[in-house]
Amino acid sequence: MGLLALAFAMIGTGATAQPQAARGSTIYRCGNTYSQIPCENGRTLEEAAPSSAQKAREAQAQTDRIQRRADAMAHERERLEDRASGQRPAIFEHPQRQSTTSRVDEARLHKPHAPKRQTAGGDFTARGAGEAPAGKKKKKQRLD
Fold it and tell me: Are 49 and 39 contacting, i.e. CB atoms less than 8 angstroms apart?
């Protein structure tokens, strides 16, 4: 039983361990994935040519320029943060308001008010709808 399993394992491994060149350099796009195995409704893509040494140097030079610029921006930000940390918080104080009123106007504005009139009994009396306070309204006279 063990020999049979070993034989199947060796056959399966041999089938999947083929060198890449034997399969070819065709790439298939199957929906959102790429595969070297053909699939249903898959499109054939050509394998990109290996990048030349010149293109690799140009790409590395561009990456280095971007990294230097990012480092410079980070250094500038840190410098500005250090300078700002030494400053006090920004507080806007309003200037003292200058008085536009004269003394006569101030005296008139701050004069004491007359006290409120008290009700007859001194207490509040709730009345129903349509009831008039006693003695306040005069009845209309009829013209007959």
Answer: no
Specify whether the CB–CB gap between 47 and 28 falls below 8 A.
no
Between CA 126 and CA 124 the distance in angstroms is 7
Note the pLDDT of residue 65. Answer: 98
Looking at 3-7, 90-94, 108-112, which range is the least confident one?
3-7
Judged by DSSP in three states, 43 sits in: strand
Can you tell me which residue has the tokens 């009829």? 142
Q: What is the CA radius of gyration of the chain?
A: 48
CA distance 71 to 139: 94
Contact 44, 26 (CB under 8 A): yes
Question: Which burial class, exposed, middle or buried, applies to 89 when counting CB atoms under 10 A from its CB (0-12, 13-18, 19+)?
Answer: exposed
Q: Which of 14-28, 70-84, 110-124 has the lowest mean pLDDT?
A: 14-28
